[in-house]
Amino acid sequence: MKWISDFIDFILPRHCAVCGEVLSRGEQEICLNCLLALPLIDDAHCAEIEKLFWGIVPVERVASYFYYRKGSPYINLLHRLKYKNRPQIGVLLAKNAATELLPKGFFDGVELIIPLPLSKKKERSRGYNQCDYIAEGISQVTGIPIGRGCVARTKANETQTHKNREERWKNVEGIFTVFNPDAVRGKHVLLIDDVLTTGATIADCARALVAVGCRVTIFTLAYSSNTI
Ligand SMILES: [Zn+2]
Fold first, then answer.
1. Average pLDDT over every residue of 72-87
2. Which of 65, 130, 160, 228 is the most buried (most CB within 10 A)?
3. Which has the closest alpha carbon to 169: 136, 132, 197?
C-alpha cells in the first residue's frame, strides 16, 4: 500500500506544522529537523513550573514537554491540535513525551489518566477534546488507563485572554465537578492539559480532585512563557 501513500503525498503534499517544508514518508505533522529542535523543558524548568501550584493546590509532580514564546513557530503545532482538526498531533507528541518521562519515574504510582474536560459547548463546536488525544498518547506508552467522564466542567468560564493573573484565578474557581467520587477516591491521578500558562484552570480541576481524596500529578504538552 506504500505506493498509495506516496501517490497521495505527490498530489496532496503534507507540510510540517512548524517550518512548512514538505514532509517525507514516515514523517507525521512535524519534520524530523523541527522535532529534533523542539524546545524541550528540562527537569530544572519543570521544578520552576511546579512553583506555580505552591500554596494553591498540593501536587505530586509536574511536567511540561516543550515551551514556546510569543511568535515561536512551534505554536503552530498547538493551533493545528486545537483549531485545525488535527488531534492526532496530540497523540504523536504525547507518545514522545511519555517515552522521555517514563524512565525518569514520572508516572510511578499513577493509576488513572484524566484529560482536562472542555465545556460541553466548546467540545461540541470543536468536535473533540484535544486533551483526550494527549491522554491517549500517554496511555499507549505507559499502559495507564484513561478515566473519561470522571470530571466535568460544570460552569463555563469567560475567556481568559485579557485578564491579569489575579483575575484569572477568580474567574476559574469552582468550575469543575467530580462525578462518582468513590471511583477516584484515594487514587493517584495524572491530570492532562494541552498548554500551561498561569496554571489557574488546571489547578482548579486539581483542587476538585484533591477535595475528593485524590493525589494529583500534572502533565501538559506545552508551557507558554517568556521567562525560560
Ligand atoms: Zn519542520
1. 93
2. 130
3. 197
Q: What residues does CATH 3.40.50.2020 cover in the chain? A: 39-224
pTM over 0.85: yes
Q: Which grid cell is 110?
A: 499513577
**What CA–CA distance (Å, rounded) separates 145 from 89?**
20
DSSP notation for 178-223? ESSHHHHTT-EEEEEEEEESSSHHHHHHHHHHHHTT-EEEEEEEEE
Cα 210 to averaged position of ligand 1 atoms, centre (Å):
40
Domain 39-224 has CATH 3.40.50.10190: no
- Determine the distance separating the centroid of ligand 1 and the alpha carbon of 12, expressed in angstroms: 17
Q: State pLDDT tens for residues 2-59.
A: 777 777 666 778 999 999 999 998 899 999 999 999 999 999 999 999 999 999 999 9
Distance 21 CA to ligand 1 centre (A): 6
The H or E element containing residue 39 is none
- Please tell me the distance between residue 139's alpha carbon and the centre of ligand 1 in angstroms: 26
- How close is the Cα of 30 to the center of ligand 1, in Å? 5
- Choose among 18, 67, 12: nearest CA to 42: 67
User: Residue 19 C-alpha to ligand 1 middle, in angstroms?
Assistant: 4
Cell of 54: 505552591
